[in-house]
Design goal:
heterodimer, A: about 210 residues, mainly alpha, elongated, B: mainly alpha
Amino acid sequence: MSSSSVLTDDTALSRADRAWLRLEAGLNLLSGVVIFLLVILAVVNVLGRKFFGAPVPGYVDWTQQFMATFAFLGLAFCQREGGHIRMDIVVGRLRGRVLWFAEFLSVVFMLLLTTALIYGTWFHFLRSFDTSLPLWSRDSSIDIALPLWPAKLLVPFSIAVLWVRLVLQIWGYWRALKTAAHAPVAVPLIEDAATVAAHEAETVSGRDG
Amino acid sequence: MDSLIDMKALLAGVDVFTLSLWLSGFLVVLVVIGVRVAFATAFIGFLGLCLFFMQKQGFDRGLITAMKLTGQIPHSKSTTYALSLIPTFILIGYLAYYAGLTRYLFEAAKRWVGWLPGGLGVATVFATAGFAAVSGASVATSAVFARIAIPEMLKVGYDKRFAAGVVAAGGTLASLIPPSAILVIYAIIVEQSVGKLLLAGFVPGAVSALIYGALIVGLARYRRDLGPAVRGFTWGQRLAALPGTLPIILVVFIIVYSIYFGWATPTEAGALGAFVVLLMALWQGMKWRDLRGALMEAAKLTVMIFTMIWGVLIYVRFLGFAKLPDAFAGFIGGLDQPALLTLLLILGAYVILGMFMDAIGMLILTLPVTFPAVIALNGGPDVTREASALGMTGEECAIWFGIIVVKMAELCLITPPIGLNCFVVAGVAQDTRLPISVQDVFRGASPFFIADVVTVGVLIAFPGIVLWLPNLL
């Protein structure tokens, strides 16, 4: 794992941050494991098809259903680690309260969006889900008729985990804003190009031979 | 209660196109103040859909309709089979670090081309091209080779700026030679064949590496103190260095061969590549802790890319209602100036944007608007070669533009003010106590920047270089 730039201390906020991180990191690892398993599944499928005339039944359906795992489960972890791309040429020059206000505002926009998305994606799930039907499923995949609702349910779940992370970050930036903290806890800190470079060098050091 | 606010009255007379222009301006503001690109685009898309439906249905019903419509996009767009290729390519990249490929590559390249003037520089470029292709990570490749290649070059008397510039520039070769995640993303966003784009990147990527190599030889011949030749390797030693490079050759070969001959889908080819690199990494003694780290990083990067994709597609859904891309394409197509000049202006805008933004972010953010415009500039999606402005069919233009724009994005990694590859090389140099500053690296990389501009010029003048391989499909 790359070095994180989130600071910690003994405050309730930092403890909540780390507790939630355990869930987020677990979900992210799960999605990594699914990537790995899908690689193995694809290898088995192509070798089975080419050399034994026996591809994995419903390979594309299985892949598509499990794609929701790595497309969504790591959402909150990525946000916690500051991994979602942004342009920081302007924020990178801000300091003190102005910076924390910009960050605060930025996360508020995200929170508004995720609130709407939880409703929308939950509704999308509900349209496929019916307990009175076999496998509780109102729609299914094309080839081997896998129910679609489990994959659809992962979306509002992952976004809800992100929603809690955003609330924690709003709390963190609000505290920084009030105290004009130099290096607040529980929020990703901006790194300049030189620091990113140093981290990059650190991440790959020792793996080059 | 009928409605909190009478939005129908409030928005009466506002046409959706004007609204989309205002909201796109607001999007730029959000991105500049540092809102994560994926969420900024999704937020603006959602806001646009809200206003669009509120104008027709009132506040409450409009809001609900917009939320339901927005809520469909993340799942439906993220579970497209073609996208499953992305995590396999990313995983190859992270596993490649553990497979010990870098030293093998550099050693082999050194023994084979070290005798040339600037031979170690040429070796570095070929080794970085090979590793960058497989790892897909420009910046990380430069970091790794800064550690391996620069000390060796300095030891035999290379100019420090030259040595650092070679490594920074070599890393930029990551995005064209297959496997390339960024070309897959481009293909998905603009709805073109993933296989054709991957094949299209191969020749320009290889040509770029050869041009870099020729440039190094030329410079080293012109100024003898820049990079002396390294001689004394026997043919036996050269041949002995080859087996270690096999996994890389195998990965590139599997992907190109599978797609070219339809032997496997791109995802299956990517998975086979990842499997080969995994076996190599295990052979090199990779531990569970290392694999866990690679999976965590691969998952994090994957979710970041997927979020960008569905985020921008929410924005695209709104733009579709507003017909903004059509209008922009109409405007660009109707300009009273040569198509080539307009194209160059668009590419110039990419250079400026690329100075401040990551390549993937830049492409995802701009393509929904620039891509239809470039296609319109050429004469539309169904234009024939003869009737087109740039001498390509609509589909050829789509593939060719992908290669050009990705090459432009890579070029920005070695331009000031935030050319990240240069900072990384300087950072590693500092870390290993080499006397190389950021300015040294930028100066050393400048001949390669010029070479890249020439390469882009050649690819624009001769699109056939890009298109002949995918056209064979």
